[in-house]
Sequence to fold (1115 residues):
Amino acid sequence: MIDQILAAKDSAVARLAAATSSDDVRAVELEVLGKKGSLTDLKAGLGKLATIEEKKQAGRALNEATTEVSAALAARLGEFRRSERAVQLEVERLDLTEVTRKPGRGHAHVVTQAWQRLEDAFIGLGFQVAEGPEVETDWYNFEALNMPANHPARSMHDTFYVDHGAPGSTVLRTHTSPVQIRVMQTTPPPIYMVMPGRVFRNETTDATHLAVFHQIEGLVIDRGITLADLAGTIESFTKAFFGEGFTSRLRPSYFPFTEPSAEFDIRTPKGNWLELGGCGMVHPNVLRAGGIDPEEFSGFAFGFGIDRMAKERHSINDVREMYTNDIRFLEQF
Amino acid sequence: MRIVHSMLHDLVAIGDDVDAIADIITNVGLAVEDVSRVGGTVDGVITARVLRTERHPDAAKVHRVFVDNGDGVERHVWCGAFNMQPGDIIPLATPGTVMPDGRAIEPKPILGISSDGMLCSARELGLGDDHTGILILPAATPLGVPYGEALGMEEEVVYDIDVLRNRPDAYGHLGVARDVAAKLGLSVALAPVLPAPQAPTRTATVELVDGDRCPRFTSVVLSGVKVGPSPDWMARRLTAAGMRPINNVVDVSNYVMLETNQPNHAYDFDTLGGGGFRVRLAREGETMITLDDTERTLTADDLLICDATDRPIGIAGIMGGQNTEISDSTTVIALETAWFEPAAIMRSVVRMGLRTEASARFERGMDTHGIDRSTARFVELLSLTCPDLVVHDGAVDARTPQLPVPAVLRVRPARVGALLGAAFTAEQIRALIEPIGFLCTPAGEDLDVTVPTWRPDCTGEIDIVEEVARLFGYDLLGKTVPKSTVPGGLSGVQQRRRRLRDVLLGLGLSEAMPHPFLTAGELEKAGLPADSVRLVNPLVVGDDLLRTSLRPGLLKAVAFNESHRRSAVSLFEIGHVYPPSTDVLPAEYEALGVVIAGADAPAAVAVWRELATAMGWGARLDQGTVPAGLHPARSATLSLGKDAIGVVGEVHPDVAEAFDVTERVAILELNLSVLLANEPKPAAWKPTSRFPSSDLDLAFVLPESVTAEKLDKAIRQAAGNLLVELTLFDVYRGTGLPETTRSLAYRLRLQSLERTLTDDDVAQLRAKIEAATKKMGAVLRS
Fold:
C-alpha cells in the first residue's frame, strides 16, 4: 500500500509541476484529494489492512503524502494566481491624469484664513479670544478709551455715526478696542486675550485702504506687566506667526488709550522693516474705565490689520479684490 | 510736518549725516516718513542760449530750437513750448540726464530728426509749479554751466515727519531740535535778545473782552519797515518747508512760526482802526472777509480780533482779515502774538472747515511762554531786510487768570521701573528729561517734575513715564515674555463656529464676505421689511443702511458671478446683521446665510440637515409659515421652541429677478447667536450590530398634502429599533398615479442587535408600517 501511496503522490507532484494554469491545479486537486481522489481512496482502504503496525505505517505515509501534495498544490496555485492577477492588473491600467470628475471643496475666505492663523498663533502663546458688537456706543469706542468728547485724537478716526439713540451716541466701531473695555468689565485679571473683528473707517477706499476691514487686538492685564513684556510678546508672536528668522522692534508713538505708546515693526530675514501695528501700555484712565485699579494691575495692548496679512501672504495687489465675492477669486485660496 | 535740515541746524549743531539724524528723529517718536532734497541743481542740466527757432511743416505741436551751450556747436532740440526768443538763456537737459521725476532724457527722434536733449520748465526742475513755458534765465547767465550754480541755488534737505497729537511742540523746528539735542547731548541755541525798545512810545492797545478765550495777547509796534523781497536763503527754506515766499514781512512771520512754532500776525499799524486791538466773541451771524477773499459767517462761539473801533480784522488763531493786510507801502506794523484756548479754536475750525497753519498749532496747544522768543526772533530776522527797524516803547503783554500754569507732577521712580521693566533712579530720570525742559525737584524718594510750558500734553505721571522711555530708547528696555496664567484657547462659541465653517466648506460651499451696508430698496427687493438702522454720514451717498439680513449681499454675489459666466455658485457667509431696536444698541446678532444657485429647495434642506447633525441642532421645519421673500410653496421656517431661528427653501422668483439672478437659488438662513450659544450634548454612542442586516424597499403613494418628513416619522415609529437606516431614494409624480399624489420610494435597512432577522420578522414589520402609514393616507405599492 505504501508503494501505491508514494506512486499517487509522485504522480500528483509531477502533474502539478507540469500544470499550466490554476484550472490544471484544481483538476489535480480533485483527482488526488477530492471525494473520489486517489489518496482519498487509499485512505478509505486503510481499514482493510491486517495489522495495527501496517495501519500505522500506511497512515503515516498517507499523511505525509497528503501534506506534501497539499503544499505543492497551494504553492502552484499561488504562483498561478499571482501571474493571472498580474495579467488582470495590467489590463486594468489607467491614465491617472484623465480626471473628469471634480469633487470640489469649499473655500474659506482669505481673510478668515488669516484671522484663524492669527488666532491660532496667539492661542499657542496662551491667549484666549474675545469678541464684541460692531455697532458700539460712543462711550465704549471713544470715551472709555481716554478719548472724551472733543478729544483731538478723535479726528484720527474717521467715524461712521449711526442714527440710533441720541445724536452722536452710536458709532460703527473704529477699532476693536471697545472689546478691551467689555472684557475688563466682565473678566477679572489676569487677562490674556486677543480680540479679532470687523471695524469701520469712513475713509475713501483704494488699493490699500478699505472702509470696512478687520483688526486683531491683544490685551494683557496682570500684576507687574511691563513695556519690556510687551516687546517680548510682540517678538514671540512675530516668530510664531511669521517664522524664526523674523524679529521685531518698538518705536515711540502716540495713541490716546496707551501710554507709553509704540508702533511695532517686523524685520524680514532679508532685512526689510515692515510697519505692522500700534501698541503700548494700557493707559491708567482706560484701566479705570474698565473697573481695574491701575496701581494694582498694569497691562499692554496691541493691534494690527488682518486684511493686510492676507494681502501680503497671497501677494494680492489691491485689498478691494478680496471683497468682490467673485468665485474666481474665492476659489484661488 | 516738513522739517528743514538747515533750519534745524540753526538751532542745534547736528552735523550733516542726514540718515543718522532721520533715525534719531524717528527713534524719539517723531516718525520720519520721507527724506527729500529740494531746490538743488539737477545734474546734466546746463545753461544754453537760443540761437534760432524753426517750425517743421509736419509738426504742429512742437518746433525746432537751435541752441549753443557755450562750445560754439549748434545743437538741435525739439520743444513743445514757444515762449523763448533768440538770445534767451534757458536750461538744457543734456542726453543722459535723470530729471527729478525720474524720467531719463534720451535723444528721442521726432519725424526722424533726433533731439539733443530737452529744454526745461520751472516745474520740470522742481522749482515750483510753473509749467506754462521754458524757464528763461537772467540774460547775464554764463553758458555751459550747471543751471543751479548759475542761479545761486542750494539744495535743502527736508525731513517729512509725522507729528502725533501728543507733541504740539514738534510742529516747530524748535520742538524737534530739543529732542534731537537731548539725544545727542547737545544744547539748543539760546533765544535772541529783543533790542531795547526806543522812544517815541507807540502802542497798539489791547482790550480783552472775552479773556477766558484769549488768556494772553501781546502787541508791539515796529517802524522803519520797508516791504520788499526776502533774502534768498529765507525764501528757499520757506519753499522747502512748503510755504510760498511773499514779501519780507509775511515771510518773517511765517519763518518765525515754522522755527519757534508760535503763530503771529503783523498788521499794517496805519490801517488799524483806533490804533489797537479788541478781542471778543463774534455776534451770531456776524460776517467778515478773510485773507483768502472769502466772506465768513460767524457764530457766537467764534473769537474775533477787532481793531479798537470794534471792526473785525481777523478770526482769532485761524486767519487774518483782508482789511489790514500788509501792503507794499506799509512802513509801521503792529505785531500781534497771542495764546488762545485750544478746544475753542478746534470747534471754530471744524465749524468753518477752515484749517490753517496757525489754527493747526493753536488747536493743539501752544507754549504759553513761547511768545517772547518768537517776538525777538521776528525783530532779528526783519532787521536783516529793514536795517532801520525800530522797536517802539509801549509794547503790551495782556494776560488773564485763565492762562495755564505749568503742571507739577509727582513721579515715583519705582513706578517708572515697574511699568518699563527696568529700574530707574530719580537721578537717572532727571538726567533723561531735564535736557528737554522738564525740571526735577527731589521729593523724598520721588520727584516733583515741572512740565515745560511747551508740553501741555503732559498732565500725569504716566506722561513722564513715556518721556523717560522715549529718551532712554525703547530698544534698550529689553524683551521679556510674561507667562500667561490662563489657559489659552477658543471659547465654546468660537469652537462651534469653526466646526460649522468646516462642515460648510466640506459641503463644497465657499465663503463670501459681502459689504455690510445696503442701499435704499435692497431689503424690499429681497422681500424683507424695510425697517433698518441708517448711517448718519455714509461714505457713498445712499450706501447708508445697516443690513438686517445677509440675503441681499449674497444675492448680489450670485448675480455678479452669473454675469461673469459662473452660474451655480454655492456660497455662504457668517456675519453680523443689525436690526433696529429700542435698546442702547441695535439688535445685532451673528447670522449664517447659504445660497446655492441653480438648485431647488431640497438642496438647502440637505445642507440644514447635515449642519443639524454635525452641530447637534434640533429644530422644527414648518412649511406652514412662509418666510418673507421666499418661494411660497417651497420654503419653511425653522423654529426652536417658540422662536424662529431661521428659514430654508428657495428664493422667491420675484426676488431673484429683482437681483438679476436668472437661476433658482436654494437658501438657508440661520441665527447663529442663538444656535451657537449652547453646547449641544455630545452624540451618544449607538452600538452597531454583529448580525446580518436585511434591506426592504417600500414605495408609497402619498397625497401632496402630507410631507415626506411625516411619512419618515411614521415609518420610523412603526419600525422601531430594528430600523437602522432609512433612505428616500426616489420621488415620482405623473402617469399612473392619482392627481395630487406622488410616489416616495424608501430603502429600509433592518437589523437586530440580538439575532439574525427572519423573513417572518421582515414581513411583520412591513405589515406594521403599512398599517401605520395607511392612517395618513399613504398607499403601499406592491
